[in-house]
Design goal:
The chain has 309 residues and is an alpha/beta fold. It contains eleven helices and 15 strands. The mean pLDDT is 88.
Length: 309
């Protein structure tokens, strides 16, 4: 649904994007992650046709940002990190205004607006002035505005920024409902715990370069695979001696807090079955075996260096 091919953007001597390639599949909730200054907003502006790339190409539903801008604008709903809210309008008037701007027939507008208010749980605020809304409600209104023309793709830049925990949960539930309706969603966020809960795929960018892309599980599994394995045996002291002298083991020890054994492999391709074979050959039985799981925040810290451009 969204694809970039070797996309770059240069401002004079400054390379904001350095040949990034992303793939957002139809129906994804795709988390676009990176430190401040990594190139997220530049990428989003290119995808929304607000900015042209220097080289490379980007496609939305097969349409190029170079020469099919109008077609792309009809396909996407864009919610920037900051947007005007026309303070003298009521919520109902605000959505009617944008429905008219998108050419929705007058006879169809009220039904459309009512449906959007219900979807975003704002029906009880339809007569309230926009600037009287809380931050969370304004974000929901911005999302309703992005949905006025029933786009296939939603591109959301930091939609949860500044929201309290309850508002973030409510926004997350709306995004899940939109995914169930068949929408493809790309969202950038710095609240990584939120992305892990809602996204099925992520792309991590730093200094204009994609450092990882794939499903959340693939990325976490890959990093966990190179991490510690914890275990219990029927003879932990003997097991520690065996593992400490084995050529495949990088390091081993006892966790000070839990008292369980831990081990890392020299080769991250080695799997858990190797431990069973090594210990079983020496007559030591396994009672418990697990791989330490990293969170998306930990994955982000491992994959990036915190560098800014």
């Amino acid at each position: 649904m969204i694809r970039t091919n070797n996309l770059s953007k240069t401002y004079g001597d400054f390379d904001a994007l350095r040949g990034i390639s992303l793939h957002v599949q139809e129906g994804d909730i795709y988390g676009f992650i990176g430190p401040n200054g990594a190139g997220k907003t530049t990428t989003i502006k290119i995808l929304t046709t607000l900015l042209e790339p220097t080289t490379g190409d980007a496609f939305v539903d097969g349409k190029s940002v170079w020469d099919q801008k109008d077609a792309i604008r009809g396909l996407i709903g864009y919610m920037p990190d900051a947007f005007g809210v026309y303070p003298d309008m009521t919520v109902n008037e605000y959505l009617h205004f944008f429905a008219a701007a998108y050419g929705i027939a007058r006879s169809e507008r009220q039904g459309l607006v009512d449906g959007l208010l219900e979807l975003t749980d704002l029906s009880f605020k339809e007569d309230a002035l926009v600037d009287s809304l809380s931050k969370g409600m304004q974000q929901r209104l911005g999302l309703a505005r992005a949905l006025v023309h029933d786009p296939k793709v939603l591109i959301l830049d930091e939609p949860a920024a500044g929201l309290d925990p309850r508002a973030r949960v409510e926004l997350r539930e709306i995004l899940r409902e939109l995914q169930n309706m068949g929408k493809t969603i790309l969202l950038s966020s710095h609240i990584l715990s939120e992305l892990q809960d809602i996204c099925n795929r992520v792309g991590i960018i730093e200094r204009g370069v994609v450092v990882a892309e794939g499903s959340v599980e693939e990325i976490l599994d890959r990093l966990s695979h190179a991490g510690r394995i914890t275990l219990r045996t029927d003879d932990d002291e003997r097991a520690l001696q065996i593992l400490g002298g084995h050529e495949a083991v990088g390091s081993s020890g006892v966790d000070e807090e839990s008292g369980v054994l831990w081990v890392t492999f020299r080769d991250p391709e080695d799997d858990l079955a190797l431990l069973g074979r090594v210990l079983g050959a020496e007559g030591v039985g396994l009672r418990f075996l697990d791989r330490d799981r990293v969170s998306l925040e930990e994955a982000f810290m491992k994959l990036t260096q915190g560098l800014v451009q």
